[in-house]
Amino acid sequence: MTQQTTTNADQLARRAAALPRGVGQAHPVVAQRALNAEVWDVEGKRYIDFVAGIAVVNTGHNNPRVLAAVQEQMQHFTHTCFQVLAYDGYITLAEKLNARMPGPGAKKSFFMNSGAEAVENAIKVARAATGRPGIIAFNGGFHGRTMFTLGLTGKVDPYKIGFGPFSADVYHAPFPNPLHGLSAEDALKGVEALFKFDIEASRVAAFIIEPVQGEGGYLPAPAPFLRGLREIADRHGILIIADEIQSGVCRTGKFYGIEHSGVAPDIITMAKGLGGGFPIAAVVGRAEVMDAAAPGGLGGTYGGNPLSCAAALAVLDIVEDEQLNEKVQATGRTMLAKLDEIAAAHPDRVAEVRGLGAMLAIEFGTRDADGHWTPDGALVKAIVAEARARGLLILSCGPYGNVIRLMPPLTVGEAVLAEGLDLLAASVDAAIAAA
């Protein structure tokens, strides 16, 4: 019989005894229930959630339409393995995602369980379509924790420590970050430099890039950079894989983050927000590219599980019926205004406010006499702890841990959003005063 406990401390003591220390946890809190943008812990304390399961419950915790769709599917069957017996939900979901992918021509999709699986399968497709082995990722990018996706991930601590060596024929180029002195033009020159010093362009199958870096610091890729990357790719017969696992499903105010640039990728990977809290990931791409893999080369036992497909179809209905992109743009404007207020109140500690839609960040540091910024991860750690004590859940990111990223459920109500933003401002004030 499962032991019943009533405090966070009791539960976390059991966790420490039962789980390996490599499974981290951002907050010493144990959830008991949640609804939309609010979470209650086992002690009954309420939190406003500006994390959303790391941009997973974009449509809110326990969205009734998502739950109803899953319950309806449960009355019919929960699993067949799509490669054994097909079902309508999988096919319909593929059709809907195909229709949403930018760019001309026919599209095709298939489904897996996690973002890392989607990325690995996108690489398989790209290599099959081009007959080339090389993959170019970008510094600061995050593409998963499996052994292959760790090679793509451009952040060592904590993801890569002790796990190497990683797969061959994976290379990293610089990602533009004007705040830290790296322009879009500099980053494109860095890509070209790889062709001179590391791998010839004719051996590169694909670039894989996040339109907005997640773990890298909520850094949007500038549109001129993405357009330049598209030009390089077209010149050398290289594909572009847009990793939309965190930026997709309306998080940026468009269904895909890359839509802000006008660039059409060849392949898109999705997960997180697609299932509304149920595990599903997608690989969507140009039909002639997607058809390169031989029959049986793609798939997985649980990929596109019927319950998850039902959840994803409900999410897409919510996107349309509730005009989620338009709502996100309004939510983003409210968030951005508050972040700008915080920045104005602390000009010597806030280096930058940035992001797209409801995928926003505020970077902290200290400025020297020459105007150069030094990251301040300790301050951000204090802000996160202060916010939690006040009832707001947020996360840090960036190579130096000095960026606070905000990703509330996209369905957050105006009153809860305003309350959360006020808590954030008060937390920043308190942490800076104590520093």
From TrEMBL:
Keywords: Aminotransferase, Pyridoxal phosphate, Transferase. The keyword Transferase applies. Pfam families: Aminotran_3 (PF00202). GO terms for molecular function: 4-aminobutyrate:2-oxoglutarate transaminase activity; identical protein binding; pyridoxal phosphate binding. Its EC number is 2.6.1.19. GO terms for biological process: gamma-aminobutyric acid metabolic process. Its cofactor is pyridoxal 5'-phosphate. The keyword Nucleus does not apply. It comes from the Bacteria. PANTHER family: AMINOTRANSFERASE CLASS III. Belongs to the class-III pyridoxal-phosphate-dependent aminotransferase family. This is 4-aminobutyrate--2-oxoglutarate transaminase.
